[in-house]
Amino acid sequence: MGWKGLIEEYRKFLPVDQNTPVITLNEGNTPLIFAPKISALINENVNLFLKYEGLNPTGSFKDRGMTMAISKAKQNGAKAVMCASTGNTSASAAAYSARSGLKCIVLIPKGAIALGKLAQALIHGAEVLAIDGNFDQALELVKEITDNYPVTLVNSLNPFRIEGQKTAAFEVCDSLGKAPDYLAIPVGNAGNITAYWKGFNEYKQNNKISNLPVMLGFQAAGSAPIVNKAIVTDPKTIATAIKIGNPASWKSAETARDDSQGLIEAVTDDEILAAYQLLAQTEGVFVEPASAASVAGILKLAKTGYFKNNTPINIVCVLTGHGLKDPDRAIAIIKQPEVISPTVAAVLEKIKLDK
Length: 355
Ligand SMILES: *Cc1c(COP(=O)(O)O)cnc(C)c1O
Known about the structure:
- By secondary structure, the protein is α/β, with parallel strands linked by helices.
- 42% of the residues lie in helices and 15% in strands.
- It has 15 helices and ten strands.
- α3 crosses α7, α4 (88-100) packs parallel to α5 (115-123) and α7 crosses α9 (191-205).
- The structure holds pyridoxal-5'-phosphate (PLP).
């Protein structure tokens, strides 16, 4: 009958019942794409796969959490929801709120939201306010307001967000027929690494998989509080979706890292942008810059000899958001098309085809 969204697909793993109004845009069921070129850059025994979460309805994995958060808000009688956002949470909250009839209020850091994400929040009818401050400050305001007024917080502090997002781990295992050996993921507010780790553990408890992956998280170097073991008061990175200096799920990200014998490391903006172009130009997969942090991190670890396997291993890189979210970045780093006269001769002069 086709895919009806992740709540229907994974109902028995989720805190929903017959009375939960399922607010869905048929999110989830994103492809796990083999990446032959990037695999070969690591070593001949590596199979690297891309979990392309940019193919969710609003273009990021946030939809997995939002279908749960909004469905539960509806069930619990909420009239309004609120979030702080680096962009994708607001795009998703706005879309699911529009569908459910809830009012949606969004606080964003002024000037720090990619164009596509802002357009989404606005067109779906959210009330969007830009604060003269950063994401961490916006989240503090939202926490205080939602603690004191009848408005439901839909940031990843909302446990239903994590519940929905854990289904991506289920899908990875369902696609591979087992857990991957390594799971690489960008880390911002650290809800998603928390969610994947929860998902893998629940699948193991239910005997769907026999092993757990090693969790490899990557932060942007200018915004790496978990790596540096200190809050970053003025985070800086072109990867706006992970530009967060005081992650809400800091502790549970460390748990995922330590319990899986994994690591959380930093990648520079240059490394992120190199991986961003590599994905687009060798694998045909366009992601937003933050998403490329997972691939940048794997390539960086490979260079240090981290993957010493003589037998085949599977690595899954989570690609969190679509490239069209942030078109300005692509345009800024690639040479613009040249304007020529509209003649065959002028075209041939430029493209130099062999006869
Ligand atoms: C939200 C987001 C992240 C960071 O996820 P966290 O759960 O905050 O760690 C990474 N990439 C993209 C595209 C995002 O939208």
